[in-house]
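Progress report, Aim 2. The chain analyzed during this reporting quarter is listed below.
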Amino acid sequence: MKKITALLLLNCTLFLYSCTTLQNAAANILSERDAINAIKEMLTIGASNGNALINKNMLMDAVLPQELSKVLQTLQQLGLSNEVERFSGTITNAATQTATNSIPIFISGIKRMNIRDAINIVKNGGTAATDYLRATVGDSLRTAVTPIMRTSLNEYKIADEWNRLIGPAKLALGNKANLNLNIDNLLAGVVTNAMFNKIAEQETVIRTKAEARTTQLLQKVFGRTWN
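Predicted structure tokens for the chain:
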């Protein structure tokens, strides 16, 4: 009887040891499912984490062709500094609103991603996930953002703002004083790039700072270095 009991205890011990060994081995393997879900979670946080960082200079450079780089200086020399500031502020407001309204589009694009190289993206570090998102769905996201930008520009009456600004300066600027006809598409590109930059910034934070990994999955996937 004692021998049987001893054998049972030994078998149980070996079984528990095997289970523990298997669990430890599993914990040291990055599964594709965990990698994919963690990447999408990380990118979603980046897209949702406030408005994109909109830069007035970037916006105005998009609106004014490169050969008209002195237009604003000319307008300011004509005493239109306040009008220039109001115009750039109006564009910035429209772009910021567009960024806010575009967040669901970015999240939808992230959720639709088929990340075939998920494990490598996790292991590569840096902004590998954002770079993959930009390469695979960047064009479609920009296309989707364009009508949102157009709506915002119309809401802020940007064409009227431009005509009010440029009217007094036409004699000095001649035919060069034209608003780029593709302003909605150009500014949508600026906003999209700013959104990607925000996502990349958040990716870097999650990869490098433990306090930014706010879920168990992010802690599991990005809380260690995988070989």
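The radius of gyration is 27 Å. The chain has a mean pLDDT of 80. These observations will guide the mutagenesis work planned for the next reporting period.
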